[in-house]
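Usage

Read records sequentially. Each one opens with the input sequence:
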Amino acid sequence: MGATPIPAAALVRGSGLSQNGGLDRLDADMSDATLTFNLHRPRLQGIAYRMLGSWAEAEDVVQDAWLKWHAADQGALANIEAWLVAVTTRLSIDRLRAAKARREHYVGAWLPEPDLADLADPAPSPEQALERSHDVSYALLAVLERLSPEARAAFLLRDVFDEDYGEIARVLDRTEAACRQLVHRARTRLKDERKPAPVAPETQRDLLRAFAQAASSGDFTALKSVLAADAQLVGDGGGKVASFGVPLRGGQRIAQLYLATCLRFRGRVRCEIALAAGQWRLLRFIDDKLESAQYLETDGARITRIHAQRNPDKLARLARLLGCELSVQA
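and closes with the structure output:
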């Protein structure tokens, strides 16, 4: 029997039912398989997103994994979760190879799409809650682009999903020694980009609120006071909107940039902070339209780095979930 693609919404609901009586038998046959797949779907989606940094591509990978699952001899699988993780990881590696070739010609810095977890699922299931416990920082997700697809997979499986080396070797079709070497090299390359030292949530929230207020009003003195002297800003406009091709360095220069936006759009800039996948982010609106999603890192006293996602293509899903339009200001 040929496999029929299942819409993401149907997988989330775990429903294989149809209003068409002619498909009832097919739906009944697929019901158990769909429910089983749906149980593991948050993990598979998380792996694919962390591998690719794109929700659209992650959903395509999970759809392809569904097709392979539907075609497999499911009764012969000793460990369903391990099989699905392996299939999803291999599909992600293949897709990332193709994506890397395209990203070489990307205009400016390439940053991942915003994480949508807390907006898409404000009341997560136990499986989704477990998946969120594996979240990595947006900054780390951005620098994972430095790794080869295989190294990225090995690093994520080991350091994020806590898989043992035997399982990683099976997924990547390599020896355990080779996988240990992949993870070691990845850790070495990323050692300066791991999660920053923990900051008390209330301290971070208060600092980011002060920044959001200053960025909304254009208070230059307040902006400088909350930005570290050596702060840096990395922006992704994708060639669709203006953005810096290289990181902007220096707290004063970054403060001037936020001030310039407020002067250009007097009284029309609004900044809000929101918690997303355990990380604070700033959402900037112009004329009540989403202009950017910005991920802020702090040392507890000052903001040290900002990743600003401005590419309208990468903000479209977030805007839909927020129920607002996109701003495409140059």
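Summary fields computed downstream for this record:
- The beta strands are 227-236, 248-249, 269-276, 279-286, 289-298, 303-309.
- Residues 201-322 form a domain with the Nuclear Transport Factor 2; Chain: A, fold (CATH 3.10.450.50).
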